[in-house]
Design a protein that fits this description.
GO terms for molecular function: FAD binding. By secondary structure, this protein is of the alpha+beta class. It has helices at about 20-30, 65-75, 80-85, 95, 120-135, 185-190, 275-280, 290-295, 340-360, 365-390, 405-425, 430-440, 445-450, 450-465, 490-500; strands spanning about 1-5, 15-20, 35-40, 65, 90, 100, 105, 115-120, 140, 145-150, 155-165, 165-170, 175, 200, 205-215, 230, 250-255, 260-265, 295-300, 305, 310-315, 325, 335, 475. Strand 17 (about 250-255) and strand 18 form a beta hairpin. The longest helix has 26 residues, at about 365-390.
Length: about 500
């Protein structure tokens, strides 16, 4: 619904954020230094602690906080990372703290350039809400349903809401749409006269299912549990095998000695019941996943999500975008959650917004068009990374679906190419550094693959692998426990390679 009336503006400058999830909270942090008053409108009643809520069903699944997201949130809210860790978040190095099953078997354990913060989505949001509530000019309004925009002369001038007290209009100088995948803002703009924006889509039919557990105490855990995170990648085997061997599996640690057991797939039906979940877990590529769950105490039912398609609303292609409106997070670009890009992309967009506001004399139409143009570059990095994987799946459908011959080529080369990069990163610090940057959205895949030094490292590793002279072993038996040996030392790696040791 659109209201084109012009009413009296509230004294002082007012910005309104639609949505109180990560993207909305980060946007409020970006707006706070530049507006007298910032209002965040959220449909849910927000919990005081780290608890699930109806508006964020995906909070029941694992969430990686990539380095680009960590850095963006930290710049918007100084001290965020320290407070997240103090609240229970875990600062880990995946290559040392995760058992990683890729290719034919377990990878070697060794130090690398990549570290990550592990926590639940609900804890991330709770810490962000605490930071927002410390800002005197930010108002967090709960139990509010946004049902329209006020528009005048090509500008968004406010929003229309409903609360338990009735309908209301909030006048605004600036509005941020952070309402997620289901945002209706685009429809309201079309009703006001803007053309429907082009939309790029690719749905690879990803479904994932999770269950929460309490871990045993440190004293009760097996001595072989050197790892905190368990990752099982889909099998490279093209022959007959159980559907569960195609699953991407995580045994994901979060705060308060808890873990999220998660299985996901491209195109396969996923278990919905507890019994089916446990049965599927026993058919994945290693028995360790099911046996680890057996040692834990379940604390939830099985949660399933399948609204996972990539979708980019191309508002940046409008010749005349609305004045006073920008989009952040899934409301403009939503990704396949497998790639952990959502939080980091939303936070990076919010940081970009703050940078643009710091240079702007006003938030006129030129400002909004300029922001959309810069945001396009930012979103293009994770978008191309998601396409590089999802376009290879036969089940993928959408505007970005490849012709069959191109899809077959991509499917044939993407797996071996990824394995080559992972293998080279085990032995080459420069390749490892670039791979970490790509994974964390600090560098595009194209930038990495046009680096002469990276290309030289990949060729060198390929030659060494062909001659059987890898320095770091890999492919340890997936039916056995993952090796605990730290292969960071060159001497350890050389000795293992020479003797064939698999500890």
């Amino acid at each position: 619904m659109i209201n084109t009336e012009v009413g009296p503006m509230v004294l002082g400058s007012v910005a309104v954020v639609l949505g109180g999830s990560v993207g909305g909270l980060c946007s409020a942090g970006a707006l706070a230094p530049h507006f007298d008053h910032v209002v965040v409108l959220e449909r849910d009643e927000l919990p005081a602690d780290a608890q699930h809520r109806r508006g964020v069903p995906q909070s029941k699944h694992p969430h990686f906080l990539l380095n680009s997201g960590r850095r963006a949130i930290g710049e918007l809210f100084p001290g965020f990372e320290d407070e997240l860790i103090a609240a229970g978040g875990l600062h880990l190095m995946p290559s040392m703290d995760a058992a990683y099953l890729d290719g034919e078997g377990w990878s070697a354990r060794k130090s690398s350039a990549m570290t990550m913060i592990y926590s639940s989505r609900i804890l991330i949001e709770r810490v962000l809400r605490d930071k927002i509530r410390s800002l005197s000019n930010v108002e967090l309004r709960e139990g509010v349903a946004v049902h329209g925009l006020s528009v005048h002369d090509g500008a968004v001038t406010g929003v229309q809401i409903s609360t338990s007290a009735g309908d209301e209009r909030i006048d605004a100088d600036f509005v941020v749409d952070a309402m997620g995948r289901g945002s209706s803002v685009g429809d309201w703009l079309v009703a006001a006269g803007w053309p429907a924006p082009p939309v790029q889509t690719l749905d690879a039919k990803v479904t994932y299912t999770s269950r929460w557990y309490d871990l045993p105490s440190a004293e009760q855990r097996p001595s072989s549990w050197w790892w905190q995170h368990l990752v099982i990648m889909p099998t490279p085997d093209k022959g007959q095998h159980p559907a569960e061997h195609d699953f991407l599996v995580n045994f994901f640690p979060v705060e308060d000695n808890r873990v999220i057991a998660c299985m996901g797939s491209w195109g396969h039906p996923m278990p919905r019941s507890t019994e089916a979940f446990l049965e599927s877990a026993r058919r994945v590529r290693t028995p360790l996943f099911a046996s680890a769950m057996d040692r834990c105490t379940p604390t939830s039912q099985v949660h399933l999500t399948r609204s996972t398609g990539n979708k980019w609303r191309r508002y940046d292609r409008w010749s005349t975008p609305p004045k006073g409106l920008v989009f952040v997070g899934d409301s403009i670009c939503a990704f396949n959650p497998f790639y952990a890009q959502g939080i980091s992309s939303a936070a990076s967009s919010a940081l970009l917004l703050r940078e643009h506001l710091s240079r702007a004399g006003s938030v006129d139409r030129r400002f909004c068009a300029g922001f959309l143009a810069e945001q396009r570059k930012l979103l293009g990095v994770p978008w191309r990374l998601a396409m590089a994987r999802d376009q290879g799946y036969e089940c993928a459908v959408g505007t970005e679906q490849l012709p069959e011959w191109k899809r077959r080529i991509l499917a044939a080369v993407s797996g071996p190419a990824f394995s080559l990069i992972v293998g080279a990163a085990r032995e080459d610090a420069v390749v490892d550094e670039h791979f970490s940057k790509v994974f964390n959205l600090d560098e595009s895949l194209g930038q990495m693959m046009t680096s002469p030094r990276v290309l030289a490292g990949l060729v060198r590793y390929r030659i060494r692998a062909a001659l059987g002279r890898e320095r770091v072993p890999y492919g340890f038996d997936p039916q056995a426990e993952p090796p605990a040996t730290d292969y960071s030392s060159a001497d350890t790696a050389r000795t293992a390679a020479r003797t064939g040791t698999q500890v």
